[in-house]
Structure prediction request, 186 residues.
Amino acid sequence: MGKLTGYSETDVTIDGIRISDKIYLKNPNPEAIPFRLDLNGNLYGGGFVLAGGYGNWFGLVDASYTQTELTVVDGAIDAIVVSPRVGYDFTKKGLPLRLWAGAMYQDVEQSLSGSLSSLDLPAGLSGLLGSVNKDNEGRFNVEQRLTTPWNPIVGMQYQISPNLYLLGEVGLGDRQSLFLTVDMRY
Prediction:
């Protein structure tokens, strides 16, 4: 269980306005309007790690599920992450290094909805949306999910001293990531 505090930034472009099912007024010069949405919410989740090895070879799979319930809008963000890895430990060969390769699967879905009047809209949007938000009854609905669920990963762990380790992992492909940590064990 945890708390989320953050924000989402995007540019909103309105290319036209639908007056009715048959009438659509196209905007010939749509202008991008910056929009920031502050996010707060509660997180719930769990996971596990399954690891094993033979000789200098090792393998592991970590998996987790989290759900984030946002307070500013109705809806939740569900995330499933599974990362299988296989690697080799060079420590017995005199080099304090472990290298691995694997993949990361992420299934992130968000279904968000709410009232337009509850959003802190920028001036360029609030005036335009006034026509569709009469009597504060205008609503929005957003459905999103990742387009590329899998990406390759490579990583390493280097033993600096008996209690100090440098750990890093890189995500490659369409969904790139990088983390680097210094761990102390005692």
